[in-house]
Design brief:
Elements (H helix, E strand, L loop, with lengths): L2 H14 L1 E5 L2 E5 L3 E3 H8 L9 E8 L8 E3 L4 E3 L3 E11 L2
Parallel strand pairs: 1-7
Antiparallel strand pairs: 1-2, 3-6, 4-5, 4-7
Amino acid sequence: MPKQAELESERLDSDRAYEIVVNAQLQSVPDETVTFEQVVEQAFPGQPPSETLSYAVSYRRAKTEPHTGTLVAGQSVIVRRKGTIFNVTQTDKS
């Protein structure tokens, strides 16, 4: 692919992406629907929930009503194009 076409493709992909904030870090997701599992993976890569680890996820400034809330495993939320904020806390069940 020619360099110009690659740059155009990257620009279009970034125009379609949704920017969210996970634990104060700017992240990009391809879809407006974001799941509990996606947010946990972005906050703690490679550390899925287990018998000894659990996660608490809260959000604010979502497109979904209510605009503020919590997510549990299996749930999702619709985010704004830019600015939905997630806080993820990891808990050890020891």
